[in-house]
Amino acid sequence: MTDKSQSTNPEPDLSFDRVDGHVKVTGAATYSAEYPFDHLAHAVLITSTIAKGKITSIETKLAGQAPGVLAVVSHLNNPGIPGYGIAKQPAERAPMGTAFRIFYDGLIYFDGQPVAMVVAETFEQAVHAASLVHIDYEVEVHQTNFEANLPKATIAPSVQKNKNSPFQDYDRGNAEAMTNADVKINATYIIPTQHHQPLEPHAIIAVWEADDRLTVYDKNQGVKSAQGNLAQIFKLPRENVKVISKFIGGAFGSGIRVWPHTIATVLAAKIVKRPVKLVLGRELMFTSVGYRPYTVQKIEIGATKEGKLSAITHEGTGQTSAYEEHLERTILATRAMYACPNVSTRYRLLNLDVNTPTWMRGPGDATGMFALESALDEVAFALQLDPLELRLRNHADSDPERNLQWSAKSLKECYEMGAQKFGWKNRSLQPRSMKLGGMLVGYGMASSLYGFHRHPSKAKAIILANGSVVVQSATMDIGPGTGTAMTRIAAKILGVQAKKIRFDLGDSSLPDAPGQNGSSTIPSVGSAVHVACESLKNKIIALAASMPDGDFSKPDPSEISIKNGVLYASSNAEKGLSYVDILKFHNLPQLEVTEESKSGPERDQFSMYSFGCHFVEVHVSPVTSEVRVKRVVTCADVGKIINYKTARSQSIGGIVGGIGMALMEASVMDHRRGRYLTRDFASYHIPVHADIPQIDVLYIDKPDVHVNPIGSKGLGEIAIVGVAAAVANAVFHATGKRVRELPITVSKLTDDEI
Amino acid sequence: MRPYQYYRPRNLKEAIDIVSSEESARFIAGGTNLVDLMKRGIAIPEKLVDINHLPLKKIEQKAGILRIGALALNSEVAENKIVKAKYPLLVQALNAGASGQIRNMATVGGNLLQRTRCTYFYDTAFACNKRKNDTGCSALGGINNMHAIFGLNEKQNEDSCIAVNPSDLNVALAALDAVILVMGMKGERRIAFKDFHRLPGERPDLDTNLERGELILGVELSMENLSKHSHYLKVRDRAAYAFAIVSAAVALDIDQGTIKAARLALGGVAHKPWRLYEGEKMLVGQPVSDSVFKQVAEISMLDARSFEHNAFKMKLVPNVIVEALKIAAGRP
Ligand SMILES: Cc1cc2nc3c(=O)[nH]c(=O)nc-3n(C[C@H](O)[C@H](O)[C@H](O)COP(=O)(O)OP(=O)(O)OC[C@H]3O[C@@H](n4cnc5c(N)ncnc54)[C@H](O)[C@@H]3O)c2cc1C
Ligand code: SF4
């Protein structure tokens, strides 16, 4: 494969390979659905075909008699899920804030809701039997149409109750400023529902080791939180629940919660008294694991002739289910992004008869920054000003929302590096003025930001008698290469080759770590690994000091270097002392430490964000209106880069997701039924190789000394934030047509003029 | 998926006998469409008659006629030397379809018979006349951005089904005036391409005029003098691996700047590959010129009509016609 991505900034280090790359590409890695068990039974879900109402009957006789069938589970025969409590008779709709309870009472909250599960000896038998189950419903009128119901949107109840919620109405400065602005734009931006569709669908194997001991092999993003959740739902002591999730074939928020299908599988395993496996089919992925919610945003911006933002109002309304809230950062970035004295934001939720959304890469920010950064482009056009220049003129030198200094911010350098690499200066100001080989050419850019998240994390570091190292933490790897980054941190501190280090993750019995979300893994777990390895190093140096060899008797770590597991004192570079010898001398089978790392008062002293920007070139056919992205340059300031090679992959992945968001992804629903139509990859488009051009990934790569001991901020989410706007802005520059509702498709761009 | 029997017939005759006599028996070739339909509960055959080993794979030229066996793979046809040299239109159309992996499984016969991609057709929770006649068409009042704009003028067609034939190959074969060779209980027959697929009418459940049990043996092509100036243009939101929003296959015979003969077919616009006969007639005897092409596009649209979400095709299609003609004529 040709390498499409390269960086110019200081000699990108591509030397450090993904530690599990080999097992992944050779198929040796074991994913959740692949653990072998004798007597494994297979489950298949049956889902509702109405959006609201209740089940009046479930006919399971034929299914029950079908070959291989072990059980047909539904609310009619559910022996009870302890954490749910007992269903009321007659059934009552759950109060707001109740997570959907599977097989509980026969009420239907959304189309595609799981209503029964068939368990059989083989997968094929389960599928067949499921086709024989007949369900009757009493249909109630449903509401799924966002536009039609928009007037019903409200401030979320939890926000109403919480004065300190960031989602409270926010006003800074003076509302008059808008009226007095020289130039104003006012626009509405829409993003459709977009679904999580990782290559590996969600899968689980549930095994009851004893009546009160459960092990689940589950695709999720947090083994510890899954463990806690399952313990609570099945009323088990936490330590009796073990959750394993070692390899994950992609997830960007879809695995944060324990979803009802996981609970159903655990229940089924209890009923049939055998390990049970469930793999969601692609179709079920559209109603089982959440999605980026349909969101409508209105933005008004006023600016001075000189290109200073004088006022911004940003109103966002997102959809959620009829039973739970789902709050996203949609409008929050607008308060911190630019130096604008007068800013108002409003955030509303609209309850519809759909399943609850969830976090999806850059949750809220990817949505909000699509609107804000598109709007900024509109302001630039209104002012006849270069869009990058507009951003420079409104750069926020400190956090205008919290009135705090940034922990670090190199956004101006990002703009400069990105623009230089991209050749932004070659952009002509007028839309539709650049052409190449019959194509309309457009250059677009957008800024990005993402808040810094760090959670308390523990890591255990061990030196074994043979001198190799094991580092452990109950963190996850949904794809970014967690183990690789952690190995690199450990290798550097402990002076051991990567191949002699094993990093264990994805097992709830390992030391506490947060789930992998909010770009918090490197900042949190990376810090814990750093601290644990430093501490282990000090410990082994102390052991060396107590040995008769005089070179190490003065235990000052800064005077000691370690190479390939051998300590060298600066006083004697010739003679080393190996980990193996130290452990042997002390008669120790191994040496280990467990350390915790968490944030301190710096959180109140600084405002902490990652920043970045994207530059995009598109070509649009004036004949067919097809849009193709030709080039992307992205530059991010995320503090210190731990491993460029895997970081770059993260950035590329975010850009690819952003291109999909801009040009393809949309879950289309038929509101007559409240049912999604696009439930396969033939109709729900995500980019393929042919859609992805050269992507240049640049980093500032300067440690942010205020955030944590390793100076690294998160990268996963910021990679996608702003990309859709950069693409949309490029399409505007190419065509003169502003598409404010994603995705930007041929059908939206086709008109007489183009 | 329901349990089914798998059968490997000894020869063509046995294959045809079984599928002709057993209501729920189906041929299976590459399975890239049929298996998906079975998984969704749309096709529920009780017996699959595997034809893959039958001698229908050859691509051969005899007396100026190219015969492509029904079991020739889409990728084999696109790589074939004769096809590449003489029918570049076919190669372009094939390579514009599906993905490399699917083209390595998909056969010519299966491609001719692939079913519509109307999303309602694929979801048994929605009514669909094509799946079950007389149950209603959900696309009519539903989401119909991918649906037909031609072949609807008789009420009968509109009320029954507004789906489009999704094949790229079919559009090229329509333009190339292919002949389909089939064999049934009554022996062999030849079907002109224009008579192979149908408009929905009273039987939207039927895509073609094949009779039950008839096996496609192959496709025949002639008309080589139209191969010099040809082009297949496919419009799609995704650069690969997407069905056409609209496509056009054009083949022109140009002699010293004058068009001697023309074939013009569209995909993604009708229940069957859509030939533009009026436009073709108009082109004959005309010089290669943009204004002629524009007139062709204009008259071609006269009998088009759109629905709630596919009105954009009314603007897109004429652009596509003109562009495909321009490229085919060598005047991009
Ligand atoms: C994800 C995806 C994307 C695709 N994209 C495109 C695209 O962009 N463009 C495009 O044109 N196509 C596309 N296709 C469709 C693909 O071209 C067809 O699925 C394929 O050509 C069918 O051929 P097959 O041999 O696999 O047919 P099968 O699935 O085996 O059979 C299809 C039907 O034909 C019948 N049949 C097969 N052979 C014969 C015969 N010799 N005689 C009588 N009946 C026969 C079968 O009984 C069955 O009813 C796509 C398919 C998929 C799955
Ligand atoms: S357009 Fe045809 S295939 Fe689609 S729903 Fe209507 S009848 Fe069915």
From TrEMBL, chain A:
Gene Ontology molecular function terms on file: xanthine dehydrogenase activity
Keyword list, A-Z: Oxidoreductase
One Pfam family in the UniProt entry: Ald_Xan_dh_C
Domain spans labelled Aldehyde oxidase/xanthine dehydrogenase a/b hammerhead: 26-141
Catalytic EC class: oxidoreductase
Protein name: Xanthine dehydrogenase YagR molybdenum-binding subunit
EC numbers for this chain: 1.17.1.4
InterPro entries: Ald_Oxase/Xan_DH_a/b (IPR000674), Ald_Oxase/Xan_DH_a/b_sf (IPR036856), Ald_Oxase/xanthine_DH-like (IPR016208), AldOxase/xan_DH_MoCoBD1 (IPR008274), AldOxase/xan_DH_MoCoBD2 (IPR046867), AldOxase/xan_DH_Mopterin-bd_sf (IPR037165)
From TrEMBL, chain B:
Keyword Flavoprotein carried by entry: yes
Top-level taxon: Bacteria
Domain FAD-binding PCMH-type as annotated: residue spans: 1-226
Enzyme class: oxidoreductase
InterPro entries: CO_DH_flav_C, CO_DH_flav_C_dom_sf, Diverse_Substr_Oxidored, FAD-bd_PCMH, FAD-bd_PCMH-like_sf, FAD-bd_PCMH_sub1, FAD-bd_PCMH_sub2, Mopterin_DH_FAD-bd
Gene Ontology MF: a single term: xanthine dehydrogenase activity
Keywords: FAD, Flavoprotein, Oxidoreductase
Annotated EC: 1.17.1.4
Keyword flag Oxidoreductase: yes
Coiled-coil stretches: none
Protein name: Xanthine dehydrogenase YagS FAD-binding subunit
